[in-house]
User: Which sequence fits this backbone?
């Protein structure tokens, strides 16, 4: 893959599920493994990644670069207390950056791709705004964070649906008939059968076989990876296989489960002390889970992970027994 950085966008359907904590600390763990890493605050409108890194909010960042419309993002990288880890601030000092233009967004994405690092982690805002969906789409493999509770899992499904529908719409928008067809399908009344990607591509085949191929390609390209955060017990993972079957059936997407991070009182303490969790509480159960995720990124990120639900359940049971003891 040459010298290009591996970009890992980190998003979530629901807010407050731990994206910022995980972006900062997975970045720290990757850096501690010896990989040059940049963590980027792309939560435009809600930037606070600096806090999880114990850094003040007074450096120019993406907001300034976009506003001035010149300069390179790489000139704005801020050193952190961790060797090998740099930080790219967001829009802390510039208002209204959640509403950047399409042109600004494209320029930003281009520059993110050429940041000088082995890994570039993007802390993206929550929800399904177009900017968020487009940032999530900069890489074929991105991380979706959720807590293992039904409302958050449903928000995750909604995010994935919005994401894949957005990708399809962007790919076919040049063709007027197809764009119209998609518009009608996406805006169908909610009392009729919900649109699935399969039904969409089967109908589109009759309009344009090429367009159908494009949809199949898009669905095969993206492999979102799920991290469950603030988990309490391995039994919260029982429905994982069912969730992936649903995602495949409705959205024609293959998701993989990548990590489970336990709920841990040390996280709050680290935040309160304005310290980095992995530095101030290295032995905590959340830190252990995060080190494990970083290690898996270095070993497995470019591979397909088969049986990811089963694997995660087994690993989580072992971690639970080590830390919490036997039931
Ligand atoms: N594993 C964990 N154990 C305990 N508390 C956690 C854990 N992960 C995150 N938290 C707490 O949850 C809160 C939300 O975390 P964080 O800010 O990282 O979420 P977020 O997804 O970035 O939120 P937003 O959508 O607002 O950007 C914080 O108070 C954090 O301390
Ligand atoms: Mg956040």
Assistant:
């Amino acid at each position: 893959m040459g010298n290009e950085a591996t970009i890992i966008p980190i998003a979530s359907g629901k807010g407050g599920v731990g994206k910022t904590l995980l972006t900062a600390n997975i970045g720290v763990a990757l850096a501690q493994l010896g990989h040059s890493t940049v963590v980027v605050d792309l939560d435009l409108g809600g930037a606070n990644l600096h806090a999880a890194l114990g850094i003040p909010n007074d450096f120019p960042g993406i907001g300034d670069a976009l506003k001035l419309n010149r300069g390179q993002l790489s000139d704005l990288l801020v050193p952190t207390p961790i060797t090998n880890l740099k930080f790219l601030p967001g829009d802390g000092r510039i208002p209204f950056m959640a509403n950047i233009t399409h042109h600004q967004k494209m320029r930003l994405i281009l520059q993110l791709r050429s940041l000088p690092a082995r890994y570039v982690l993007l802390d993206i805002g929550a929800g399904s705004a177009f900017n968020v969906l487009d940032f999530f789409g900069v890489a074929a493999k991105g991380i979706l964070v959720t807590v293992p509770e039904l409302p958050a899992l449903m928000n995750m499904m909604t995010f994935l649906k919005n994401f894949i529908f957005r990708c399809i719409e962007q790919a076919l928008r040049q063709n007027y008939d197809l764009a119209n067809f998609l518009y009608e399908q996406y805006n169908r009344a909610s009392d009729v059968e919900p649109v699935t990607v399969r039904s969409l591509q089967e109908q589109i085949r009759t309009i344009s076989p090429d367009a159908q191929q494009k949809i199949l390609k898009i669905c095969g390209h993206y492999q979102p990876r799920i991290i469950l955060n603030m988990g309490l017990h391995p039994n919260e993972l029982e429905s994982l296989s069912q969730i992936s079957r649903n995602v495949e059936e409705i959205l024609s997407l293959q998701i993989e489960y990548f990590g489970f991070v336990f709920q841990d009182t040390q996280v709050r303490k680290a935040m309160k002390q304005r310290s980095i969790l992995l530095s101030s509480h290295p032995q905590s159960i959340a830190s252990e889970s995060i080190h494990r995720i970083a290690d898996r990124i270095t070993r497995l990120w470019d591979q397909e992970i088969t049986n990811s639900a089963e694997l995660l359940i087994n690993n989580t049971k072992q971690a639970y027994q080590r830390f919490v003891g036997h039931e």
Notes: The CA atoms of residues 21 and 262 lie 13 Å apart. The first strand starts at residue 6 and ends at 12. The longest helix spans residues 150-172.
